[in-house]
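debug: dumping io for the single-chain case to check the tokenizer round-trip. Nothing else runs in this session.
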Amino acid sequence: MRAPTFCAAILSLAIATTVAMAQAPTPPTGTPSTTPGATPSATDKAAISKACSEQATAKGLHGKARKKFRSECKKRGGAPA
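debug: decoded output
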């Protein structure tokens, strides 16, 4: 009577282990994604936006020029021009 219960427990453990190992690892947080075509996370977007704002401030841009610069900067991923 105990054999079916024991076999079921071992089978469940084997399935759970296989599923856990099959999951892809997640990238580290806090670093902007460098993979082309990858969708940046919310923290990546915030870091890129801040970097672009700081660059625009350093250049002394205001109004439409600042908006245009930040838009182009975000498309580059926050990289300096």
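debug: round-trip ok. Residues 41-81 form one domain.
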